[in-house]
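Fold this sequence, please.
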Amino acid sequence: MSASPYRFDADYRETAMLTDGTQVTIRLVEPGDRELLRQGFQDLSPASRYLRFFGAKPDLSDAELTHLTELDGINQFALGAVREGRDGRLEGLGVARFVRDPHAPELAEAAVTVKDAVQGLGLGTLLLTRLAAAARERGVARFSAEFLATNARVRALIEETCPDATLTALGETVRVEVPLPDPESPLPAAPARRLLGHVAGGRLALRLRHLLLKDF
């Protein structure tokens, strides 16, 4: 069997420390992570769910869990952060994922979700930075995200700090696209790094429009 051409493959493991000292392991999401995702989703506050889905979403169905955990690693990719709980069981803390646009393979819709209990501790930035690197090595050139069209504050923030971003009106939402740098280059301060910072800071939600079986 030939070696994987990717750094971020099934063998990838990374130990990181959050700003409060919490130790987490970053790895690819696997089919066996269904219950971790189900429980992690249940632990999200209603506000966090609204930011990700732009509406009410009480739980994930079995079909959605299959869709979110059985990934090809190229066009559908996800990283998760876990830690070992006091009872020895793994606890899912956050997930970052992308899905490549089948009609534009250089474009991928990206999304990140971090449990409320560890928000603001650097996990969102960590996951999104690794997601961008994984996407770049798979040939993705741009990330897309969405925000509510009524959120003038977010639009002004993106226009001010991400001048290379492309904004497209989609009725009730606006899609923003930002270019990712060459795979051999470090993630720069702008524009992709700034967009990731807005997401990690809770100022912009990366919506799961095309990552679920239903459109919420």
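The chain has a mean pLDDT of 81. Residues 74 and 181 are 18 Å apart (CA to CA).
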